[in-house]
Amino acid sequence: MTAIIRRAAPEDAPSLAAVELLTAPEFATFLLDGLFEGRSVGAVLSTIYAREGTDSWEWSWVAEDGAVVGAAGGCPTNLIRPSTDTGEAAARQEYYAPVRAAMPVDSFHISRLGVLDAFRRRGIAGALLDAMIQEARIQHETRVTLFVWEDNAEGRGFYAQQGFAEADRLTLPPHPRAIRHGTLLLMEKSLC
Predict the structure, then answer these.
(1) Lowest-confidence region among 86-90, 150-154, 177-181
(2) Count of CB atoms within 10 A of residue 5's CB?
(3) Smallest Cα–Cα separation from 48: which of 99, 83, 86, 22?
(4) Domain CATH for 180
(5) How many domains does the structure of the chain reveal?
(6) 34-38, 80-84, 92-96, 150-154: which range is least confident on average?
(7) What pLDDT was estimated at residue 171?
(8) How far is CA 114 from the centre of its chain?
């Protein structure tokens, strides 16, 4: 692996957004598309990553190989606060209420992990995952959790190889705005 893994910085916000939209656009697109007139999903997501908080650069890592080629994010679940959004934003977030409800309150939860296609199978995803697991240990968490789509055999296999096992499953029903729907698996790895 030639990529360098490091904690993200505020100036990485556009790259964090770009990697997410290229590797797993379904959540951001569902939540943000058309929400702010005249602003693209990427622009809004970049603004979110540029601020402080659990869904920002502060709890993100990047992989660089000349440029950012992968990104990941996660934090202790006890730091995640309920949204204060109202109106359309709140209505869109309600679709993901089962995901929030299934998330354990006493873990380090990985909310995103993506590597650009041209840089896959080089150990970058594993290195990003290791960086987050190391942070989970620093935070004195005893387990790490994440969600993966049931039909993502490659992702499920990768996480199983990394020591994750299925802990729960939930199904998101079809929705006119949803790029994807179906069964999500909550995967868990003990750090004890």
Answers:
(1) 86-90
(2) 20
(3) 83
(4) 3.40.630.30
(5) 1
(6) 80-84
(7) 95
(8) 8
Sign of the Cα pseudo-torsion (146, 149, 155, 160, in order): positive
Phi, psi angles (nearest 5°) of residue 110? -90, 115
Q: What is the pLDDT of residue 1?
A: 67
Domain containing residue 121: 4-190
pLDDT band at 140 (very low <50, low <70, confident <90, very high): very high
84 contacts 78 by C-beta, under 8 angstroms:
no
CA distances from 129 to 81, 148, 190 (A): 23, 14, 14
CA distances from 32 to 11, 36, 75, 77, 148 (A): 21, 8, 22, 23, 21
Strands of 60-64's sheet in order across = 4-7, 60-64, 68-76, 108-115, 143-149, 182-190, 165-172
In the predicted model, is pLDDT for residue 16 greater than 80?
yes
CB 79 within 8 A of CB 54: yes
Q: How wide is the angle at C-alpha 164 spanned by C-alphas 158 and 166, nearest 5°?
A: 105
